[in-house]
Write a structure and sequence with these properties.
This protein is mostly helical. Among the domains are: about 10-140, Alpha-catenin/vinculin-like (Four Helix Bundle (Hemerythrin (Met), subunit A)), CATH 1.20.120; about 285-395, Nucleotidyltransferases  domain 2 (Four Helix Bundle (Hemerythrin (Met), subunit A), Up-down Bundle); about 575-735, Four Helix Bundle (Hemerythrin (Met), subunit A) (Up-down Bundle). The protein contains 24 helices and no strands. The two termini are about 25 Å apart. The relative contact order is 0.09.
């Protein structure tokens, strides 16, 4: 991730992306071979010839590399001067290396190998420096593309904010969804390519905020359009827009590395309030314990000087300050609070004993047995206190999840809103806010005990989302209580309530991950936008869940969420029909519901629990596609010959082939994880393709029906809509899902490659198989 400056002289050579690093590795290997050979006083003729060939290969590779760099310079005037200069340096260094290897045997005969070694080292440094500059300048082009995409989304978001008619909103929202897909690809690439675990987690958190908030954008905007005088609905919508703008701002700061020059390497502190993932100067209990223990360990080497004593006391004071978040919490039990205070007093006593012992051993070069014992007792006391904090946080979370108040509170809140009982909504608001505070407190405590920056960001992200999502959910309930007969207001509350429950589920997963890591049994956690591990197997016996690897998770997530994008787009199109209870709309929404349940499967949620459930659902989906084909075919007979009818027939005739293809995939027998994964992958891919065609058919049918005034009302023989009760609840929410949420994981399976034009073969092992999609 190159810095924002263009001047070569000021271009930092710090490599922040894996693709740049991987491209440099083969070059480093070859140059190392050449430099090491110069240390040998004598070499054979065969070795000399081999080295000549290596030098020629390096020079040729540099020429190819430079030609691509110059092409990039021609296409991007803002970096042209710096790129051309770096290319010239690389070419000169490559030529020097070739010349040095070509004259290698003569230099050994003339005793000049020492001077030649110095020249080789100098040329190697020049080449590495020049190639790195070229790669980082090319990386700046990738950053520029991402920022342009982000700005397009921001501008369209502003247009959405100012629309006043539903027609304008649908049109702009469609454009917004396409731009979000592009942004998702670029941010997904960037997230995968970043070397820093912290920056990857931050990018994932920002993208997750965008995903969740965009899910709520469609219904919240529709409520404002339907009830323009409702101030509560406006506040609800503005809160969603604020979340999205904050996430977009955070993405910009991550990719431009603003604030990266600070001493602590963190982004600017004011970002934290906008996005909730700033990680500014937050000092956790975990960091405090580590710093304190490091100072205690250091006394073995340095003894306790006045400076060391000051640092020890300062570290202890910082530790006590972080502990106050545990003891001051209203939700910490009396037993835990007393245990923390007692262990803190014990640690203070052990530290005092250590300082007294060290004072008596001032002139001894090695720690005495008494001093070693005091150090061990202090470290043991610190570890016991740290364990007590972990137990306190875990027990508080356990009690909270055991009570499971969310479901009941949301149930009563919905009931009060549907009945128009504003007083009851106010009463439930108080309970909801109390529960929300307790959840935020759990996030704060787990942020203290998290052992790495990724987990800290996960805890901080959960706290931020809960703090912002809670008030928006209450506003949706208040808006419904003002318009209890409004279907769109009810759908809006349903969406916010579902988002809240999903966030609680995410919080419980985070709690388990942090607790597992603290207990020493946690695998490396997988964050944000990746589907949860699914089950593989096609029979009714209990099957052992198989955890997908990152590439499999990313690929399934991409397909599932792309399909979700299409379902949201089609739902927006079906909302245009004046008479929604007709055969075309009915079957299209039915298929949208099925596709949405398959999307939920990719997240480890919804009514489909196993791959066999998924395949059965896909079978129904294929059957319903054939029925829709017949329905639209009958409708097309009423359309006069025109360009719209031709377009409709072109899309329509693709449906049977897609249904047949999906049917063939589902009939394939599988055995083992890999084969099952491939079948799931192919089934979701084909379902997505068919959904894309259906969306175009519905749109074109609406144009024909409206333009030629065709009667498209429900026919007497129409079949009943198929949907399970679980899917019906999911579909209510899917009608309000954002088009972008599908795109948030869309780019996760594609490795970013700012230098992919230079050395695709060198980085192929690092890339995930995005091309298969």
């Amino acid at each position: 991730m190159a810095g924002p400056q263009a001047n070569d002289a000021r271009l930092s050579l710090e490599i922040r992306t894996k693709s740049v690093e991987q491209t440099l590795i083969p070059l480093v290997t070859q140059i190392t071979t050449l430099v090491n050979h110069k240390e040998r006083p004598r070499v054979t003729e065969k070795t000399t010839q081999a080295l000549v060939r290596v030098g020629q290969a390096v020079c040729l590779a540099v020429e190819r590399f430079v030609s691509v760099g110059q092409t990039i310079a021609d296409e991007n005037p803002e970096i042209s001067t710096d790129m051309c200069q770096a290319c010239v340096e690389a070419r000169n260094a490559g030529a020097s290396i070739q010349q040095l290897t070509a004259g290698d045997s003569a230099s050994h005969r003339n005793g000049k190998h020492i001077a030649e070694k110095t020249a080789m080292v100098r040329a190697a440094r020049q080449l590495l420096s020049a190639v790195t500059k070229v790669l980082l300048l090319a990386d700046k082009v990738i950053v520029k593309q991402l920022l342009i995409s982000k700005d397009k989304v921001s501008n369209t978001l502003n247009e959405l904010y100012s629309v006043t008619t539903f027609t304008d909103f649908v049109n702009i929202f469609s454009q917004f969804g396409n731009e979000m897909v592009e942004l998702a690809h670029l941010t997904g690439d960037r997230q995968n390519d970043l070397k820093s675990e912290k920056h990857r987690a931050q990018m994932g958190a920002a993208r997750a905020v965008l995903e969740k908030s965009t899910m709520m954008l469609l219904p919240s905007c529709k409520v404002c359009l339907r009830h323009p005088d409702c101030e509560t609905a406006k506040e609800n919508r503005e809160g969603v827009f604020k979340l999205m703008k904050g996430a977009l701002s955070m993405i910009r700061h991550i990719v431009t590395d603003e604030g990266g020059n600070q001493a602590n390497g963190n982004v600017s502190p004011e970002l934290n309030g906008d996005s909730g993932i700033g990680l500014d100067n937050y000092f956790s209990a975990c960091k405090a314990f580590k710093e304190f223990e490091d100072h205690v360990e250091m006394t073995r080497v340095t003894g306790v000087t006045s400076s060391c004593k000051e640092k020890l006391n300062g570290a202890f004071d910082s530790l006590v300050e972080t502990i106050q978040d545990f003891t001051d919490s209203a939700y910490t039990s009396h037993q835990h609070r007393e245990s923390i205070i007692q262990m803190c007093d014990r640690l203070k006593s052990e530290l005092s004993a250590l300082l007294r012992t060290c004072k008596n051993q001032r002139n001894s070069p090695n720690p005495s047995p008494e001093m070693e014992t005091a150090i061990l007792r202090t470290l043991t006391a610190a570890k016991s206190l740290n364990k007590q904090l972990q137990d306190t946080a875990t027990d508080q979370a356990s009690e909270l999840f055991k009570a499971n108040e969310d479901h009941e509170i949301l149930k009563h809140l919905k009931a009060a809103g549907n009945s128009g009982d504003q007083q009851r909504v106010t009463e439930m608001t108080v309970k909801f806010e109390e529960h929300m505070q307790q959840l935020e407190e759990v996030c704060k405590l787990f942020r203290h005990i998290a052992t790495n920056e990724q987990l800290v960001i996960a805890a901080e992200h959960n706290e931020f989302v809960l703090k912002n999502l809670g008030p928006l959910t209450l506003l949706a309930a208040q808006a419904l209580s003002m318009y209890p007969n409004s279907k769109i207001a009810q759908e809006n509350l349903d969406m916010f309530a579902e988002s809240w429950e999903t966030q609680i589920n995410d919080l419980s997963i985070m709690v388990k991950e942090i607790n597992d890591v603290c207990q020493g049994r946690g695998d490396k956690p997988v964050y944000m936008s990746l589907p949860r591990p699914g089950k593989h197997g096609t029979n009714s016996r209990g099957v052992r869940p198989v955890k997908l690897d990152a590439e499999e998770q990313a690929k399934i997530a991409k397909l599932g969420l792309e399909m979700k994008l299409i379902t949201s787009e089609m739902d927006a199109e079906t909302d245009k029909w004046e008479e929604p209870d007709n055969d075309i709309v009915k079957r299209a929404k039915n298929m949208s519901s099925m596709a949405f349940s398959m999307y939920l499967f990719t997240r480890g949620e919804g009514p489909l629990k196993t791959t066999q459930d998924l395949f059965i659902q896909a079978e129904y989906f294929s059957s319903e596609g054939n029925k829709l084909y017949k329905t639209v075919r009958d409708f097309s007979d009423k359309v006069p010959l025109c360009v719209h009818r031709e377009e409709l027939m072109t899309h329509l005739e693709r449906i049977p082939a897609c249904c047949q293809q999906l049917h063939s995939i589902l009939r394939t027998q599988t055995s083992g994880k890999t084969a099952t994964f491939n079948k799931v992958d192919n089934a979701i891919q084909e379902t997505k393709n068919l959904m894309n065609i259906i969306a175009k058919v519905v749109t074109t049918s609406f144009v024909c029906a409206t333009k030629y005034n065709i009667d498209y009302r429900k026919s007497p023989g129409s079949s009943r809509r198929w949907r399970s009760s679980g899917e019906a609840r999911s579909a209510t929410s899917s009608d309000n899902e954002s088009m972008y949420s599908s795109s948030m994981s869309d780019g996760l399976n594609k490795s970013s490659s700012s230098n992919k034009q230079f050395s695709a073969s060198n980085t192929s092992l690092e890339r995930q198989p995005s091309g298969s999609n």
